[in-house]
């Protein structure tokens, strides 16, 4: 550790900041560390107090439920929450006022991709996923029934893809007097002629609902050769923005991990990130795509962004990091370090020290997760003020995306938005964490419904509705995003196409997707729905009642059979083990884990929070016994071992669960679940991963 302005900073972090981050920024190392030390000294006590407040509130809620067993008296419960300060007064009517927000967030409705920041190969892919091949996305997934026949291009499937693509164009950008399938490749006469905006060589560029569609003409291409208009592909503007995630999709437990994440973010902000890897037996190097060149119909050249607008999701207020120790010897809050370092790195984009630019409007975009209520949002706001002062940035250069994913934030959403009203770039419903917090907050109220049934309960409908309605009432439309959550079945693209259109229909101008392919397919939805018109309609609605939001999803006399209980338990246990084993043993923070029906599910720390809290809740209320849980964990460990048999780096758990740190971590997440702060999984995951890294 190096002593810097009273802080003890891990060597690799100190070296990274001084040798790679600060050069080019006109910030002197001494000033940086004293600025950082000053921010820690000002914000650490407040951060700690707010964490203590979380615990104090939770223990009072626990006690109330013990004294007021279900059925819950809704009025008494609400009075209790008000007296507790859990519910705060609504602010007077106001409108948010962020300045210099890029159009990708304020004006364009389209998909938002999320990508783990520790994986440079995926990160580059994500940044480049601004544009995606619709033909590839359809051909290679279940969006089209069946699978490609092996042995080269499957013409029959190709024909289905082409047909799908033409029908999409007919719906999104119809021709005046014919179907796109009859088009001969001459200048397309669109029903709305102004939608035809330019050319790239022979390709045609169309703009609809703020999104571009490029019709690729290449008669020499195998697909274009068989097409009477020579169409080789339809390329869609897809991942309009991308969240580079330092939080729930990564396993970052020490200075080494943090520096890897920060250095990838630096590569993105400077535009020089590159990664070389083997794919299909060949070495390939991936870099960031340049912007795209077009010629307008008036003959004037113009460019369009070649890359997704990039945001960094910092960690929340809870965790501390061994990368920096405070003068009192304690670890520093990781969220404060993230704010300082990711914003400093963002200055490379503002100063254009590299070749490519991210924010054309000169903003730095940081997403803040897992905040509980307005005081915690105010902490973030003041912290970002302090970071701006330290870096000499104009006030509100750093924008914030507020994840509405904790119950105290949903219940006080207008006040939360008010706390960051001049820097807000989005609110969104992180329904996965939010479900975890729903269970944890009401842990002592009774046994929860099964996980699947939870989606049909009043609280979640009210949560989704209120997020849009309150966002609109606070004036977010046209200024910031109102977003929806993740599609967590990365291989189920047909289902996604059928269901996720519900997000733009709900008035959301973005929704999360797990992969570039999903981004391209989800982009088609924003051609079907005019989101801003939907927002105008929804702005007239009455806001869904808080009482629905506060209705706890308790089991109500459903007569679960032993088989149903077992199935629920097995499903949760398998998901936990399948995810935790890769996190703890291999440092993989986001995985596709097959569920009991062999559907690959995206698992991250938020889905783990739900599964572990759910079993903890059933244990607490005697729906399952500790012995049953232990027995199921061992049985599921065998299953997970079998699922990973092809991975040479995998360490089996079932033969000797007592010796497997991964198995022990999974078990602790359940058996110590009621005691974990807000039901979060990161304290235990970090502790076990650190043991593995230490050679344990
Ligand atoms: C509740 C929440 O907080 S949700 C937010 C956190 N979740 C996420 O960030 C999800 C991000 N997604 C992922 O990490 C991955 O898609 C997973 C883990 C779900 C699946 O990963 P895999 O099993 O490796 O995916 P799969 O084999 O289907 O595809 C891999 C290919 O897709 C690409 N890919 C997959 N996901 C992404 C992504 N999010 N961004 C960019 N590229 C991606 C990879 O680059 C790779 O392509 P390449 O070989 O050309 O590099
Ligand atoms: O972060 C997203 C969530 O659903 O949780
Ligand atoms: Mg979350």
Low-confidence stretches: none
Strand content: 15-25%
**Which small molecules are bound?**
acetyl coenzyme *A, the ligand O=CC(=O)O, magnesium ion
Structural class: alpha/beta
Label the overall shape.
Answer: globular
Mean pLDDT: 97
Helix content bin = 40-55%
Radius of gyration, taken over Cα atoms and rounded to an integer in Å: 25 Å
What's the N-to-C terminus distance? Answer: 22 Å
Number of beta-strand segments: 23
| Largest sheet properties | 8 strands, parallel, barrel
- By DSSP (H or I, 4+ residues per run), the number of helices equals 26
Domain Malate synthase G alpha-beta insertion: 153-181
Active site: 313 (proton acceptor), 604 (proton donor)
Binding site for acetyl-CoA: 114, 121-122, 249, 286, 514
InterPro entries: Malate_synth_C_sf (IPR044856), Malate_synth_sf (IPR011076), Malate_synthase_TIM (IPR001465), Malate_synthG (IPR006253), MS_C (IPR048355), MS_N (IPR048356), MS_N_TIM-barrel_dom (IPR046363), MSG_insertion (IPR048357)
Task: Give a short summary of the structure.
This protein is of the alpha/beta class. The chain is 45% helix and 16% strand.
Features:
8-stranded parallel beta barrel, alpha/beta, binds magnesium ion, binds the ligand O=CC(=O)O, cytoplasm, single chain
Write a structural description.
The chain has 26 helices and 23 strands. The protein has 696 residues and is α/β, with parallel strands linked by helices. The strands form 5 sheets. The protein has an 8-stranded parallel β-barrel with strand order 3-9-14-17-18-19-20-21, surrounded by 6 helices. It starts with a strand and ends with a helix. The model has no long low-confidence stretch (mean pLDDT 97). Acetyl coenzyme *A binds next to strand 3, helix 5 and strand 22. It catalyses: glyoxylate + acetyl-CoA + H2O = (S)-malate + CoA + H(+).
